[in-house]
Amino acid sequence: TYYYENGICLLEFLNPTLLSTLANKEDNPTLKEAMKGPDAASFCKAMENEISTLEKMRAYIVVDRSEATSKPISSVWALRRKRYPDGSVRKLKARICARGFEQREGIDYFETYAPVVQWISVRIVLVMTILLGLHTTQIDYTSAFMQATLEEDVFVEMPPGFEQEGKVWKLTQAIYGLKQSPRAFFEFSKQKLIKLGFHQSIADPCLFISPTVVCLIYVDDAIFVYKSEDEVDKLTEKMAALDILFEVEDDVAGYLGVHIERNPEKGTITLSQKGLIQRIIEAMHLDGDSVTSSVPVKSFLPLDKDGEPPTELYSYASVAGMLQYLQLTTRPDISFAVSQVCRYIYSPKRSHEKAMERIGLYLKETREGGLVFRPKQTASNKFCNIDVYVDADFASGWGTEEGTNPDSVKSRTGYIVEIMGCPIIWCSKLQPCIATSTMEAEYTALSMALCAAIPLLYITNSIHNGFDFHASKKVTFKATVHEDNMGALKLAQLEPGRHTPRSKFYALKMHWFRSWLKPDTEGIAEIDIVHCDTSNQKADFLTKALVPAKFVACCQLSLGW
C-alpha cells in the first residue's frame, strides 16, 4: 500500500515476494535464453522429463480443438536453476505452466485462496525441537500440483516444442500457473493428512498435528517433527500407500531459502541466508568494494524531496524486496534500516540509494551472521516463558524533515517477541497515528506489540499440545512484557476503565489489552508488564540509529552474536 505526499509516492507496506524475483532473472531464463545458454541440453532433458511426468500422472487428455468447451489457455515453459542457500546450483528444473491470467472466473476457476505456513510457526517448532530433543525430516512433494485433481474443465494449448496440429490438452490434474492450482493442492494435502490421523490446527491452517508427528506445510515443502525416528518411517510408508508422490530429504538443513544449522553440543540452531546476502551485495555492485560498515543505518532517512536524483545503476525496488525477505526471516538487526529505505521504493533519491548501499556494506561485514536459537532451559516444565521487549522513538523524524510532511512527527514502534529466550517475532514500523507525548508513543507501541504477542499464545499452545509430552501436567504459557517507560507501564497496569487525566484522550483501541493482565482462576496473570532498564532493552535497535558499540550490544542480546 502507498500514498502521495507533496507529489511524492511513499510506501506504507511492501510484500517482498512481489519484487524479489526481479533480482533472480539469471536463475529464471526464458525458453529462448535457455536454448542459447550453456545449459541448453540439460534444460531440454528437464523439459522431456516434465512431459514424461505429466503423461505418467495422466494430467491431461489430448483432444481435438473443436471439442474444447471453453477457449484454450496458452502455455509457457518456466525454467529455473534451483540453488542451495549458499548460492550453489542444486538442479535444473522445467515446468509447463498455464497462463492463468487468461482464465475467466466462473468458467475456468472459482475459489483460489490457499494458505501457507507462518514463519512464526516454523521458528516455534525449531525451538521446541531443541527443548524437547525432537527429530525433523523434510519432505518435497514430487510434481506437487499435478497430484491434485481439477474440478473444472480447463483446456490448455500444448507446450512450445511439443505441439500437435489441431490438438489441445484437456486437464484432469492441476498444473502450475492455474489460479486454482495452489488451492487444489492444499486441499489434496489436507485430505491426505487427515486420513493419516492428523488434525488441522485452528491457530495456523498449515499446521497439522497427530499424537506422534507434527507437520508444517508451505505449498510443496513439508517439515515433519517427531519424537521417535521410527515414527517418520511408519508415516512415509502410509503416505506411499495413499499414492502420494514425495522425496524424503532427511534432516531440515534448508527451508524456503534459509539455511538451518544445528549444533547439538551447544544446543543451538542457527538460521542464516548467506546466498541471499551475496545476491544483494552483487545486485548493488558492492562485491568488489573492500569498504564495509559496522552499522546498517546512520540516521533517520528523510523524504529529501529536492535531493540529488538516483543513479539507477541497480533496481532499487528489487533489492528492497530481497532486503525485506531477509529481515523478515533471519536478520532483525536490519529491520529499522530496511523499513526506512522501503518507504521510498516508488520515488528514491540518491540519498536513499546510499542508505540502501550502507545496508549492503553492513551485510557484507556480517554475512556470516544470522539468527541463533539458544533456548533458556527452566527448572520446571510448568511454564513456557514468552518475553516481549517493546520500545518507541517519539517523533522520530522531527527536525530532519520538512514541517509540511506529517510523517516527520510520527513515532516509531519496535518490538521483539521471544519464546524461551529465542526471537520469534520482531517489527520496526511507524505508528499509524501521531502521538503527542512520549508516554502515548510508548503506550501505542505496547498495544501494537501485544497485537502480535497474544495470538502467539494460541499458536504456541497448539504446537506444544500437539507434541503431547506433558499429558500429565498443565503447561502454562506466561508472557512478560518489558517496558522501559514508567508512564506507559503505570497506565498499562491500571484496571480497565481507569485512566490518567491525559490518557483519557487515547483511542479506546489502545486499551483493549488490559483485560489480559487480570489473574486467572489459579491467581496467575496471563501477561505481566514489568519495567526494563534501557541498557537491557532488546528492541532499542528497532526504533533508532545507534552508535556502533550500543548496536553491537543490542545484537548480542537479541541475535546471540
Fold and architecture overview:
The chain is 29% helix and 23% strand. It has 12 helices and 22 strands. It has helices spanning 31-36, 40-56, 119-132, 181-195, 229-241, 274-283, 316-329, 335-342, 350-365, 438-467, 486-492, 548-558; strands spanning 2-5, 8-11, 60-64, 75-83, 89-98, 135-141, 149-156, 167-173, 199-200, 207-209, 213-218, 221-226, 246-248, 254-255, 258-263, 268-272, 371-373, 383-393, 412-419, 422-430, 476-483, 527-531. Helix 6 runs antiparallel to helix 7 (316-329) and helix 7 (316-329) packs antiparallel against helix 8 (335-342). It is globular, with a radius of gyration of 26 Å. It starts with a strand and ends with a helix. The model is unreliable at 17-23, 469-475 and 521-525 (pLDDT under 50).
Short summary of the structure?
By secondary structure, this protein is of the alpha+beta class. Helix content is 29%, strand content 23%.
Number of helices: 12
What shape does the CA trace take? globular
Low-confidence stretches: 17-23, 469-475, 521-525
Going across the major beta sheet, what is the strand order? 9-10-11-12-6-13
Keywords:
single chain, 5-stranded mixed β-sheet, 23% strand, alpha+beta, 6-stranded antiparallel β-sheet, 22 strands, 561 residues
What are the SSEs and their pairings?
Blueprint: E1 2-5, E2 8-11, H1 31-36, H2 40-56, E3 60-64, E4 75-83, E5 89-98, H3 119-132, E6 135-141, E7 149-156, E8 167-173, H4 181-195, E9 199-200, E10 207-209, E11 213-218, E12 221-226, H5 229-241, E13 246-248, E14 254-255, E15 258-263, E16 268-272, H6 274-283, H7 316-329, H8 335-342, H9 350-365, E17 371-373, E18 383-393, E19 412-419, E20 422-430, H10 438-467, E21 476-483, H11 486-492, E22 527-531, H12 548-558
Parallel strand pairs: 18-21, 21-22
Antiparallel strand pairs: 1-2, 3-8, 4-5, 6-12, 6-13, 7-8, 9-10, 10-11, 11-12, 14-15, 15-16, 16-17, 18-19, 19-20
Helix pairs in contact: 3-10, 6-7, 6-9, 7-8, 10-11
